[in-house]
Amino acid sequence: MRLILEVWRQDGPDAEGSFETHEITDATPEMSLLELLDRLNHQLVENDQDPVAFESDCREGICGTCGLDVNGVPHGPEDNVPACGQHVRSFTDGQTVRFTPFRARSFPVVRDLIVDRTGLDRIIQAGGTISVDAGTAPDADTLLVTHDDAERALDFAACIGCGACVSACPNGAAYLYTGAKLAHLALIPHGKEERAKRARSMIAQMQHEFGPCSQIGECALACPAEIPLLAIAAVNRERLRAGFKWRKPN
Ligand code: FES
Question: Which of 79, 99, 124, 247 is most buried (most C-beta within 10 Å)?
Fold first, then answer.
């Protein structure tokens, strides 16, 4: 298969970027898009050119590092699939595939297709630690969690923190990400004491670095973990609950 690759090249955060065009003539339908970039890099290195910088680790949808935009869509044309799981078979012979870094003010470009997503880590850091009783480990069944709560918590815990939700959102909002974390933690008994404080800190940090939510829903369509829009409701619920808790005298 022959594909035309338009790839964003940028030397650093303050450098001016531009698109470079390359041709791959031996792509195969079963190749993943990251393997297509590997193929391009092989070709560039053979011609004494700098390879394209892009991130990946697990290449099986777990780590969330491979985020980039493909033809303007976070991760690529297949819904709810990370870039490492997208395949060349989604494109036709001779088609142009345009690779750009995730586009959001909160994700400055580090180099080429790599962006700095540490803003998401700072939301988690703002949540702080949870209280754990010292002493011997309690029996597993002294801390009961219903099956339904465990299942729902796992649904939200599936977020891989790739940042596709932020890139997909016209406002660059991180509500889906923050909501997934808050909902997951609110459903399990550990860290219950810190629930209101955690919600206030994480939401404040999110609002400090990311845009507002206007409930367009693009975030959930792009999410490779299929985090539902309910996560956004979780942000609002936890904020409201934390507000009441804040006013309550201890
Ligand atoms: S490389 Fe880990 S999710 Fe894609």
Answer: 99
